[in-house]
Amino acid sequence: MAKYKLEYIWLDGYEPVANLRGKTQIKEFDSFPTLEELPLWGFDGSSTKQAEGHSSDCVLKPVAVFPDATKTNGVLVMCEVLLPDGTPHPTNARATIVDDPDTWFGFEQEYFLYQDGRPLGFPREGYPEPQGKYYTGVGYSAVGDIAREIVDTHLDLCLEAGINHEGINAEVAKGQWEFQVFGKGSKTAADQVWMARYLLLRLCEKYGVDVNFHCKPLGKDLDWNGSGMHSNFSTKYMREVGGKEYFEALMAAFDKYKNEHIAVYGPDNHLRLTGLHETQSIDKFNYGVANRGASIRVPHSFVNNGYKGYLEDRRPNSAGDPYKIASRILQTIATVPTP
């Protein structure tokens, strides 16, 4: 038997953006524990905006497990929050979302690294050189001295945890970066995005750096890019059958439900979706081949393959909840009958 450090992780009740929370307990197992072996646990919901002080008990239900390479016998445990009677807590978005393992999602998570109240690499006064050389840049003047170490270490931690982390790059603005996560099914994909966020936040503690997931941290009046979480998606039908007629019906449905999508695509999105900086205006919907200013970008490969493959919804923002984003995409897809 060995003692394992079980770090239980969940989403709190803060709005409009939930915070990640975590605490650790020690349990003995013969080997790395399976999900079925992990016990329920509890926490004080009155300290996380999930309960009143006179009845503060909330329950943590393990739903996904990952190895933690930073610790000997470390285990990262993604949890849903339940009420004491075992029903999903009102803040538990995961428990009620639409899911389908044959629907694949690729989330492109953008974020800013912040230090001393400003993006990493910004001067104490004023601004750095205009955007241009930072995207996929290299060298101290482009990315600074510790950002590369952070994002490379984060990549390793995610891969060692079994997260399907697919890549990283420096983004358009100074101090802005992106990582990509791919998963099959709403819950699996979103679990991995939340866990990747958690690992990044925890890693940055040792550097005295914060992670800013706000979609427009530098303000709408400044000529600096915001942060999105472009969401690539494909169903089994889209991959294997597709067709122009089905595609056009699908886009009509996304247009019809555009307001429902915006409602769950992240707070303050009006600051980012202005029609500038490779975005479509928040109150409009359009699509286009290789058009980064569209609501949905259609890859050349999709059209060239007979309208089969994946599509990219560019409207979700960096602070959006991937559970809700994936679920809303699936809800809209479900309204379109397959021929």
UniProtKB/TrEMBL annotation:
Residues 4-86 form the GS beta-grasp domain. PROSITE patterns: GLNA_1, GS_BETA_GRASP, GS_CATALYTIC. Coiled coil: none annotated. Homooctamer and homotetramer. SUPFAM superfamilies: Glutamine synthetase, N-terminal domain (SSF54368), Glutamine synthetase/guanido kinase (SSF55931). It is an enzyme of class 6 (ligase). This is glutamine synthetase.
